Amino acid sequence: MLKELILMLSVLAICCVGVDAQTAAWQKLTSVEGKFSVMMPCKAEVDVDKPDPEDEDAADQTFYSCSLESGYFMVTYTDFKEVIDDKGMLDAYRDGIAEESTIISEKPITLGSAPGRELVLSKTTDEIKQLFKWRFYLKGKRIYALTVGTENPRLGSPDINKFLTSFKIGK
C-alpha cells in the first residue's frame, strides 16, 4: 500500500522538478468524503486506489493532485482497517514514504488534536535530485498526507507554505 504511494510520487517526480505557483490560480479544494479542505495552486485531479479485497492489510487511498509545468502538489488520505498506537502509525507511514529516499529533517507537528509529522526527503530519480516536503496527520483510522515536490532552492517558497498551512480537517 505505501509502496504504491511511493511509486505514484516517483512517477510524478520524474515529470516535475520544481514549484512555480506564483502565477497560479489558487482555488479551494473541499472534499466532503475526505472531510478536509486545502488551497491548491491549480485544479486537482482525483484518483482512488481500491486495493485487492483479498489483501487484508491493504487500505483505500484517495489522491488529489495538481501539476504545474514546474512542479506538483498532492493531498492523500488513506483509511486503515485498524490503528496501532499513534506513534506506531506515524512511524510506519514515515518509513513507507521514506523508503529509497534520504530523510533530511523530521519533526512532530499537530493539527488541532491530530498528531503528525513534517518530513523533508531527498531522492534522486533519473539523475534529477528532488526534494519532497511532507506533512501527514493521523485522525482516527485515517492518515492525511500533503506532499510537495520541488527542486532544492524552492523548498522554502511562500507558495509551499500557503498550501501546507491551508489544510484543514473537518468533522
Describe the overall structure.
- The structure is a single chain.
- With 171 residues, this protein is α+β, with helices and mostly antiparallel strands.
- It is 20% helix and 46% strand.
- It contains three helices and ten strands; from the N terminus they run H-E-E-E-E-E-H-E-E-E-E-H-E.
- It has helices spanning 2-15, 86-98, 158-165; strands spanning 27-31, 36-40, 45-49, 60-68, 71-79, 102-111, 114-125, 128-139, 142-150, 168-169.
- The strands form two sheets. A seven-stranded antiparallel sheet has the order 3-4-5-9-8-7-6, sandwiched between helices.
- The longest helix is centred in the N-terminal third of the chain and has 14 residues, at 2-15.
- It is globular.
- It starts with a helix and ends with a strand.
- Residues 1-22 have low confidence and may be disordered.
